[in-house]
Amino acid sequence: MSLFMDISFGCRCSHHIEATVYVPDPDFMAEKSRDSTSEHWEEIECEKCGDMYEAYITNSFSYAECSIDNGEIDVNYSVPYYPDLGEDDLDWFIESSKQFSVFERQIENVKGLLEAEVSEEQAFSLHVMLHGHVVAAVEAYLASTFIHKVTNNSDFIQKLVETDPTFSQQKFTLKEIFQKQNQLKQTVAKYLKDLIFHDLKKVKPMYKEVLSVDFGEIKWLFQAVSTRHHCVHRAGYDKDGNPLVIGAESIRELVDKSWSFIVFIEEELKTLEQQSDLDFDIPF
Q1: C-alpha torsion angle, residues 209, 213, 219, 222 (rounded to 10)
Q2: pTM confidence score
Q3: Which of 29, 50, 101 is nearest to 262 (CA)?
Q4: What Cα–Cα distance (Å) separates residue 1 from each residue in 106, 154, 186?
Q5: Exposed e or buried b for every residue in 177-207, given b needs 16+ CB within 10 A?
Q6: What distance in Å separates the CA atoms of residue 188 and residue 254, rounded to the nearest whole number?
Q7: pLDDT per residue over 214-233, tens digit each?
Q8: Which residue among 41, 183, 237, 240 is buried most deeply as judged by most CB within 10 Å?
């Protein structure tokens, strides 16, 4: 499956251009991150004035980036992603309850990789990648768990409709209403996947409003997400070209905080389920 990224920039005619470009796979035969860079060029046309721009996309083990016309045009670009999930992939979010075990396995792999013997240069690249991996593991758990819980509980779906103005305002024809009754879980799962995956600012309030789970103070996680941006786009360097302070100890600290946080979420969700069972058993 191919990778893509979303880009946006301003045309010389003042028109705002948005496009999706192909991202090449890194050179998996390379031994070092610096040797793994792959390149791709793509032409983008302004639909208003017809001017052509050349997008230059690179990808390596550490990061992916995009420039327009040799850097002469400022461009915003997303983290590379795979195309929208198909029904089989959405079914995993809906049906699988293994989100915690997946997270646990990823964390154990990070701990194991921290013990690997590598050179100082390799260690920096490794730590940059591990930081991004831990953050991605947390984000994936939060998003997939939320989707699984909501799509399998009609009360949560109702809360989603009541608290999310975008979803509640979707309009369907009468035919679509009957069709969507049979695929409501798919509709909700796709909407949530597109909305909250890799967007912590949206995940936090939705957990509280729909699942009644308050994350509490997670400034550390927002900071880790911000650092991850540098890891992905600049291979662990800030805008001024200075290396970030990322080492084995900072990764271990991030792992410990992430583990405690996700265990807390699991316990809150179990308490919620137990309370729901008690409420169901109360006779009228």
Answers
A1: -70
A2: 0.64
A3: 101
A4: 22, 34, 22
A5: eeeeeeeebbbbbbbbbebbbbebeebbebb
A6: 32
A7: 999 999 999 998 888 777 76
A8: 237
